[in-house]
Structures are given as C-alpha cells and as structure tokens.
Amino acid sequence: PDGRKVAIGLGGKVAGRRVYGYKKHAGKVLVFHTSTLEGDATAHDAREMISAVRYSPSGDTLAAASWDGGVYAYAHSNGRLVLLHTVNAGGGGAVLSFDFSFDGKALRTNDQAGHVRYWGLGSNGGAPIDSKDASFSFSFPRVGNSGTQTRKPLA
After folding, report:
1. What DSSP element (H or E) covers 22?
2. What is the pTM of this model?
C-alpha cells in the first residue's frame, strides 16, 4: 500500500497448456522491494496458479486467490509471510478475483461459476458472513451470475 513492495502470484497456462515450471511454481506468492527488486518474502500454500494478489487497506494483510478455490491471507512483516487464514471460497471453481472490505476484516470473492460470496477474516477466520456485515467499494469486478444479482456478459 505504501509502494515500497510489490506482490505477485505464480503459475499459468498458455493456450490451455501449463507453462514451464508449473508444478514447481504454481501457487507461489512472492514479495519484492520495488527499489531494488530483491525478494522479501515467499509463500507456497496454494496448489494451483494464483489469479489475484492484494494487500488489505491497512497493509497488514496480503491475500492471494487461487485456481484451487482458496484465498490465502498472510501477515507480512519482517521479511516473512505467515498464513493467517485460508478461505475455501471456490464452491463454484477457481477464485478469479476478490476484494477486501474497507476495514480489512472481510473478503468478497468471485468464483469461476460467477458466485459472489462474503467471508470474515477476524476471529471467525474464513467463515461465511452476511453481505450486510461489511462495507465494500463498488470497484469489484464480477463475472457471471449470482442469485438475484445478475449481470449479462458483454457481447
């Protein structure tokens, strides 16, 4: 959030085929110092490629969404990523995108089937919550359909 570090997720496919080193690197999260591009921290908890990486608004938590259906939330300090919570959000397949609530205590996820779900990160660590229990921005990218929230694909 302060621009001094950047986080990336690894793994990928090109034309449906896994790229070189997929088994070794898919699911890794790397953090680099932007001024030197030196590595600062690494985590490898996801089993499939990472689809999105984001810091919480306060910068205390780094989360990564994966094609294995999970979102992995880490504490990032002193050059280490420590797993805090695993949210099993992929009831509809891979988690394609997610967003933190304004206070950083909840996540909103969007999976491959188009479901939008809400998860707590505080003491309830990854448990589903009601959408009324957290405030989010409107910038969240949704794909597909979710209950009564319907969005038709662009032609």
Report:
1. helix 22-25
2. 0.80
